[in-house]
Amino acid sequence: MIRYADNSSRQAVFDMWKTVFGDSPEYMEIYFREKYRNENTLIYFDSGKAVSSLQMLPFRFSFHGRMIPVAYFSGLCTLPEARRKGFMGALIRRAFDELEKRAVPLVMLVPQDEPVMNYYRQFGFVQTFDEGVVLPDLHQLLSGSENLDLAYGEFNSFFRHRDMAIQHSVDHFRAIAEEAALFGYPPKRSLTGMSRVIDAEKLLAIFAAAHPETALTLKVSDSLIERNNAYFQLENGRVSIPEEGAAPKLELDAGELTRLLTGYRIAEMGEEYTLYFPEKEPLIGYMME
């Protein structure tokens, strides 16, 4: 059974995180104080015991000139004795349903390694972020500013002026500053990350409005989110459902659509895609990873 966390199950999520990830008590105190919220946490219960959980943290993301709400999957974990039973897969699919209800059109995560990336690919996630971009030095910002708000302003400008970049609130900045101090302010770079379309029509509408010159009919196939299985016509800055029998110029699965909309390495996909979708440099970092 899957249900949202509450005050009676919060400790179970905390203990599960400690068992699976082995993070220090100091880091966990910061994370569970600043980022954890019952209303963003799904738990799988097996025979009444919490055995698997994930968190859907809310963020903003710069997307073709707009700031949109996105979710960041954090703390996905299953107790060792409960693995390979499909519990996490069930949680991820339920999370997709919940994000649809919340009108969140895009979800992201940062995998630990290639095997973990392969696991998430079965749920429609694709790589959309590369590691390596040098991020603002928190110690330098904080020591060179009169207060945290001024430091945040300079930090925020680095992300705010980029398209396809995760955005950080002042509350999140406060949390990552505390975390950085805990670990001696290590230098930070952007992270390898993955994304997944939740609401194809909403994202295509934003894309079309930003690129009114694009005229294109798409067929999208999505094995997990039914509403995304549709034909979409982009023309004159709008998205519509074309008449039955319209021939699509491109046929895409959910992963391909995600990659195209985020502009991730479009040139590698071929000229038929670069004609319609501009290449971007998506960036994600400082996620309390």
From TrEMBL:
PROSITE patterns, per the entry: GNAT
Domain N-acetyltransferase residues, every copy: 1-143
GO biological process, one term: aminoglycoside antibiotic catabolic process
GO terms assigned for molecular function: aminoglycoside N-acetyltransferase activity
Signal sequence bounds: none
Superkingdom, natural source: Bacteria
InterPro entries cross-referenced by the UniProt entry: Acetyltransferase_Eis (IPR051554), Acyl_CoA_acyltransferase (IPR016181), Eis_dom (IPR025559), GNAT_dom (IPR000182), SCP2_sterol-bd_dom_sf (IPR036527)
Entries under Pfam families matching the protein: Acetyltransf_9 (PF13527), SCP2_2 (PF13530)
Family matches, as Gene3D superfamilies: 3.40.630.30, SCP2 sterol-binding domain
Listed name of the protein: N-acetyltransferase domain-containing protein
